[in-house]
Amino acid sequence: MTGPFGAAPTTGLGSLPGEDLREWTKFVLEGLSIPFLPELPARPYGDMVSRAVAVLAELTVDLQPAGWRLTGGSGTTGSLDQRRAKSLLNQDLDTLEEQADGYAGPFKIQVVGPWTLAAMIERPRGDKALADHGARRDLAEALAYGVEQHVAEVRKRVPGADLVVQFDEPALPAVLAGAIPTASGWGKHRSVDGPGAVELLSRPIEAAGPAHTLVHCCAANPPIEVFRKSGAEGVAIDLALVNDAGWDRVAEAIEAGTILYAGVLPTSGPIPHPEQPADALAQRWHRLGLPVSRLADVVITPACGLSGDSPTDARTRLETLRRIADVLGEKSQA
User: Fold this and answer.
1) Helix (H) or strand (E) segment spanning residue 321
2) Residue 79: inside a domain
3) H or E element, residue 92
């Protein structure tokens, strides 16, 4: 199975520095094979969890000093802070509609997945929603319904877009390992098994259809099998954090038709020459016995989000992606 976007595509993973959404939207539309809706966490309500709160449907949350918390209520209006998060998202979609007028091609949006959301949002009476089976189920259902509406809204504003929905699950490895601390800090939340993780994650992934889907996890030991069984078409991972056993799982996923969004470019420190990450990926590919021609299906990305960079460095890193992809494209045809 070949990737849907042609040879050696490039994209970012969502977060970018600064507060100028208009400029970033223009940049990604012009400079990336798969442009995306930028997330600018430097702005109030611009972080990844606030974005997800803006997408949630029929579930009310409010913002407390410790973070977002379920209120126990439901409805379409939400709390004041939730309405502010929704307002910012709508403003960003207005900007996207203006900048992407006439655009046709792949376009990616990002939202936090249900497990990371449950590990970061509190229940009304304290501790994380992760601790309550009913609360995390309600979160997943509200997220699924909200994603369905969000996808429809983006389609309406950018009718030529071939949409990709990225679900961010950085906390899922810790959820599976039982490593998420309780509110007291004296204990850990009970681990979740693989089938349980698949059940919850598959709900919003199914709701995103017929858009393309992927799960992004830039933590060590990403649970690729869970992502695949949940129905995601692609996986986005930081390749520097994948051990030998993890690479075997990557190879199995690729052989099964999963699209690899390869985080090959560091998000901090010196920017490597494009040959370095391209060579490292190609050499690993060869050791795994994967067909060289399949390198053209890989989507080249940074290792994770770029909000910690300066705007200048972030632009340079995104521009470097194209050069890495060109080198990799040449290797796939060798």
Assistant:
1) helix 311-332
2) no
3) helix 80-99
Residue 201 lies in a domain: yes
Residue 160's identity, in one-letter code, is G
Residue 127 confidence (pLDDT)? 86
Ranges assigned E (strand) in 130-277: 161-168, 212-217, 234-238, 259-265
Residue type, 258: T
Strands (E), the chain: 61-64, 67-70, 105-112, 161-168, 212-217, 234-238, 259-265, 299-302
CATH number of the domain encompassing residue 210: 3.20.20.210
Could you tell me which residues come within 8 angstroms of residue 136 by beta carbon, excluding any fewer than 6 positions away?
Answer: 114, 115, 118, 129, 130, 200
**Please, which pLDDT band fits residue 294 given cuts at 50, 70 and 90?**
confident
Q: Is residue 165 part of a domain?
A: yes
For the segment 243-276, what is each residue's pLDDT rounded down to a tens digit? Answer: 988 999 999 999 999 999 999 999 999 999 999 9
Query: Where do we find the tokens 């199914």?
Result: 206
Residue 1 falls inside a structural domain: no
DSSP-assigned beta bridge partners for residue 300:
10, 262
At 41, give phi and psi (nearest 5°). Answer: -70, -10
Q: Tell me the pTM.
A: 0.95
> Domain of 269?
26-37+102-121+132-332
> Which amino acid does the sequence have at 281?
L
Going by C-beta distance under 8 Å and a sequence separation of 6 or more, which residues neighbour residue 298?
A: 3, 8, 259, 260, 261, 262, 281, 328
Distance of alpha carbon 30 from the chain centroid: 21
- Alpha-carbon span 328 to 322, nearest angstrom: 10
Q: Which residues, in sequence order, are CB contacts of 244 under 8 Å at separation 6+?
A: none
Rounded Cα distance, 81 and 60, in Å: 10
Query: How many independent structural domains does the chain possess?
Result: 1
Rg over CA atoms, the chain: 19
DSSP letter, residue 334: -
Question: Phi and psi of 331, rounded to 5°?
Answer: -70, -35
